[in-house]
Amino acid sequence: MKFFLSGEIDGTRPGDEIGEKFITACNLVTEKLAPVLENNDYGSEVLELNVIPIIVKLPHEMEGAGWHKERMLFKRKSNSADFRLKIDYDEFCNGNDQHRVNLLIENIISSVLILRKRATKDFDGKQLETDILGAFNKGVDVT
Fold first, then answer.
1. Residue 124: pLDDT band by 50, 70, 90 thresholds?
2. pLDDT digits (tens, 9 = 90+) for 47-79
């Protein structure tokens, strides 16, 4: 399975260094997870998983107007999935590297759980979930 991890990040608060924090956590997750997923077969229904967490701090009026809405897209014709689920900005920003990695993993697992309900013909989502957690020994160690 092809795996892609990126993010929609609010970079307007320079003191928060959210971009740098996200890159560090994203690289740690991708380094451990991509080889595992790319070397395993989870069925023919989903061949590509794109996870793009949304980590933004918006004024209520912008959020109410639909800025940075979550997206849960499964394209049967292209066998791909694109998930954009939110991660709390303050929790991500104020956590340590370990916590930020855990938040990304939780976001990926949430995406897989949603995908399991949509891809029901030939997709071993349970094994994908197991492999994701196994890549981090069920607890994430960023050292």
1. very high
2. 999 999 999 987 677 777 777 889 999 999 999
**Is 139 inside any structural domain?**
no
Contact 5, 30 (CB under 8 A): yes
Structural domain of residue 53, as residue ranges? Answer: 2-133
Is position 138 within any domain?
no
Question: How many domains are there within the chain?
Answer: 1
Q: Is 108 within a domain?
A: yes
The structure's pTM equals 0.91
